[in-house]
Amino acid sequence: MSPCTLPTSESSSNFSSGSPTKMTSPAEPTYDVNERVLCYHGPLIYEAKITKPPIVHTEETAPPSGPGPYYFVHYKGWKQTWDEWVPVSRLLKLNEQNIATQKALQASSGHGGSGRGPLVGGSSGGPGGSGVGVSSGPKGAGSRGGARKDGTHGGRGQKRARDEDDASKKPELKLTVPDTLKATLVDDWESITKNNQLAAPLPRSPTVQELLEQWQEYMLKLDPKPAHLREPKLVLPTIVSGLTCYFDRSLGANLLYRFERPQYAAVRKEYITGKHVIVGTEKEMSQVYGAEHLLRMIESVFLIRDYVNELLKWMEAERDQLFLAEYPSASLNYQNVSRS
């Protein structure tokens, strides 16, 4: 009999058309629904949570991992597409001894960590888990990177690996996101997508607009100014204006979770489209939302990087029609004016 196929999301409730019995083996450790555990995935250990009662597969219904009890787990900080049934042999109790084992594996494999869960890229995905004392898995889980938890690029063939190798040679826009803010992204994601909570009340205090103005004021007062920042008095107002404008345009399209959509519709009715709103008094979203959504936008800058790279490739291909073949000489009158 051929082995069963393991499901990869919560929508899958069985391994196959077989009928595994719902019981646990007394010889193996048992785990409860909603219990926090540690789970092997590849060479590393990740924090997870049991989300369904266990099932036991017989020889006839067993997947490749063999017969025995299986638990459905959600890896903390990873998209639900990573949820899976795992044999009990891959699970560990969440205790100090096993956390030490987890950290030792993490150190030996070269994966540094901050004691928090993996960060998810955000935009459409979600930030990672926030368990204390657990590993921070490879960055980008559930994001556009698509890497596996064990750091490999399996499951999509050699072409995917070659594409990613080529992409790694492109210029990159690197951001240094502090670990505490990574944890904030994690908590934000879990609060909304798992706990049915909202960033409220709105308007937030400070709003995105107020926050950026405060930051600009702070930067301009720094003495001495950071050496790597060029002409802050000239550049900062433009940066703040650009970030504010991008936030206003991207919030509804890229920065909201599905659970936040009704709140967003109510905000627009309250401050933009409602019959009571007087023309000229409408509020931009940067005057309503706060730091939580601004942080999501900053994390999504990698989306901008991808599009900018595509823009550069297109400009290169169309350079003959886009760029001047020859610059015309300025008139003598213009030259004299420019030098005066």
From TrEMBL:
- Renumbered to this chain, the Gly residues biased-composition regions fall at 110-145
Location of this chain's protein in the cell: Nucleus
Which GO terms are recorded in the biological process aspect for this UniProt protein?
A: chromatin remodeling; regulation of DNA-templated transcription
The protein's UniProt keywords, in alphabetical order, are: Chromatin regulator, Nucleus, Transcription, Transcription regulation
- Primary location: nucleus
Q: Which stretches make up the Chromo domain? A: 30-107
* Record InterPro entries: Chromo-like_dom_sf, Chromo/chromo_shadow_dom, MRG, MRG_C_sf, MRG_dom, MSL3_chromo-like
Q: What cellular component GO annotations does this protein have?
A: NuA4 histone acetyltransferase complex; Rpd3S complex
Q: Where is the composition biased (Low complexity)?
A: 9-19
Annotated segments matching region Disordered: 1-28, 103-175
Entries under SUPFAM superfamilies matching the protein: Chromo domain-like
**What CDD domains does the record tag this protein with?**
CBD_MSL3_like
SMART domains registered for this protein in UniProt: CHROMO
Q: Where is the composition biased (Basic and acidic residues)?
A: 160-173
A Pfam cross-reference name: MRG
- Do you know which PROSITE patterns this protein is assigned to? MRG
Family in the record: Belongs to the MRG family.
Identification of the protein by name: Chromatin modification-related protein EAF3
What are the top taxonomic ranks of the organism?
Eukaryota, Fungi, Dikarya, Basidiomycota, Agaricomycotina
